[in-house]
Amino acid sequence: MKIEVAKGQDKGFLPDGRHTVKITDIEEGVSEHQQVPFFAARMENEDGFVSQRFYNSEAGHPIILQLYSAAGIRPEEGKDLDTKQLIGKQLSIEVGDHSYADPATGNERSIRQATGFRAA
Fold it and tell me: Where is the stretch described as Disordered (predicted)?
């Protein structure tokens, strides 16, 4: 069997711990369960990557603002933030697993996530 390695798939997940990473890609979408808009930032370094979703909701705004601040972008009242501004920015993140109950099935699921955003 041959397994194709597509662009961006040549690295595994970052191991647990703190890492300095660069944001290399932004994808936009809508959550499957509650239809909340989000963007997913791919953060990587030579050791691997993690892709983290950021939800554009009232509850998600403090986390989004922490990400922008860590990336050196200062939000200004009355001005929109553009997710494209994040591409190429370096920051420090904490990587680990997060478990939660899947809203559709109730089954426990785990995802690899980035938290603790700080300036690099």
Answer: 97-120
